[in-house]
Amino acid sequence: MNPEGNDRVTGDALQGNGHSVHAVAGIELFHSIQDPVLIVTPQGTIIDINRATLQAAGKKREEIIGKGICEIIHGGRWPHIKCPLEEFLLTCKGKSEDTKLPGLRGEYRLTITPLVDPHGNIRSIMLQATNLTREESSKFESMRTAQLAAIGELAAGVAHEVNNPINGIINFAQLLLDDAEKETQQAELLQRIVLEGERIAAIIDSLLSFARENENELSEVDFRQVIEACLSLVDHQLQKEGISVEKDLAEIPCLVIGNFMQLQQVIFNTIHNSRYALNERYKGQSADKKMIIRCRPILSDGVRKIGVVVRDFGTGIPQGILDKVFDPFFTSKPKGKGTGLGLSISFGIVQNHGGSLSVDSVLNNYTDMIIEIPEAPR
Question: DSSP secondary structure string, 19-88?
Answer without folding.
Answer: HHHHHHHHHHHHHH-SS-EEEE-TT-BEEEE-HHHHHHHT--GGGTTTSBHIIIII----TTS--HHHHH
